[in-house]
Here is the input.
Amino acid sequence: MDIAEIKRLEAEGPGRPASKKRQQQVLKAFVYIFLMVGSFVMIVPFVWMIVTSFKPLEEINTYPPSFFIRKPTIAAYIELFSIIPMGRYFLNSLIVTCSITLANIFFCSLAGYAFAKHRFFGRDKLFLLLVGSMMIPWQVNLIPSFVIVKKFGWLNSFYGLIIPAMSGAFGIFLMRQFIMNIPDDLIDAAKIDGCSEFTIYRRVILPLIQPALASLAIFTFMGQWNNFVWPLVIVYSSKMRTIPIALSVLNGQFGTNFAMVMAGAVVATLPVLIVFIAFQKYFIKGIALTGLKA
Amino acid sequence: MNSVLKELNKQKSAYIFIAPSFIIFTVFLIIPVFASLYWSLTEYNILQPPKFVGFQNYINILFHDPRFWKAMANTVIFVAGTVPTSIAISLLLAIAIDQNIRFKNWFKTFFFIPSITSIIAISVIWKWLYASGKYGLFNHLLTSIGLPSVNWLGVTWTLPSIILMSVWGGLGYNMILFLAGLQGIPHVFYEAAEVDGASEWDKFRNVTLPLLRPTMLFVTIMSVISAFQVFEQVYIMTYNSEGAVGGTLDCALTIVAYLYETGFQRFSMGYASALAYLIFFILFIVTIVNMKIVEKKVEY
Here is the structure.
């Protein structure tokens, strides 16, 4: 190394050489461009959905297609709620989704508590069975579940839509993992104070697993709100349809009235979008934690 | 004596706690699993009691049913078309978002929105994007840059169209999983690589990829399993006035779509149960093979 080179290195000072710094800046610019183009691609279909839903029919059929609406109208939404009973479908979806979510929070945490903190005969084998059952694809139990629900006379009813989904292996598993982290001392202390098992569950366990309950609630809500196959199979009358079924029927019957179909898609998307934005933190954390989709 | 009673009482409450879940679990999962195993060996149309036929359904499916093989081929094309593409793009996205950049959460939200949207809503939106003639947005884009327009939902293009839409819809979910994996890689590895003078590409190849292998395994298995069961997209995209699923000439008939048609439109419950068990078997093998491949490679 000659004197000149040493001087040059000194001039550059400690830290990265200039070329490397520039390389990183270029890289970062690429990262931003990549992410912005990507976000654009993600958002455009939704923007197109919203724009179309507010367009009068004659603007949908003008060429070239445009993101600009000359005469915005809510005619499609009025049609949606008057030609078909969309309000009723919305209510159906709300009833089904909320009941299933509440039931899951209660039953899964209860079972999760038993698996995490109780010793009982057959516990580990039952738990293994539960975890193993998560590998079974839903197609396997779809047909018999349909036949069983039919035998109970629950086809085309809230019972059939709600009861089979009131608890689940995934939820129990999630709850158990969380409750295991609660120190036994807390439970023992409550026992010494003379609390019943249910009181311990309600007063000690539930308050401590609130973040997990929130994750489970959001997963269940979203999964059920979007659930399609089960209602498709067991609902046969128009008045029991849920939103996804209504949307698929809309697509079949009014497939050419794109404004109305897009308005239906907006109505189907909005509730989950609101829930998602409100509870985003729990949701993304929950996925990273469990790797399971709703 | 007292302590035994107390112990029993404690057990009793545990059983009461798991009872509601286990009743549902037994009635809608355990019993169905065995019921469909038995029905897969029968001829069953719900109205008459099942008639035992041995392995006839399986033999018919595997050796005398060209539509099964058509559905199988379409499903494999769908899996091969979606899984690697989605993994490559979502990994790139995750790495991009993991950099020291601004608006991280905005980007995450944008990419994740399709994952929370009902696949039915997504499918109807894309059906409108794919609309034939000049009103469809995609065809407008193609023709405005001088390319010929495409009959997106015709016989040739239906399956690729569904693949494209599904890749788009699944990116955000895989991205979140990869992000979690990336954040689990200790920073010292990158610092060590930098001291050794590694370039960004070296770091990606020799630090990120090997250490991301468990995440990669998980994402691959989950993606293959869910892609193999594709149904809703096919149902909406190929829906016609006769209520048939799968499109003209079965161009986009997938295994689960075929199962739906067999079980709930033709009410051949025995045949459909055999299809369900074949799906179960294939997914089981896929999972085992996947795990073996990755297990072999994890050596440091």
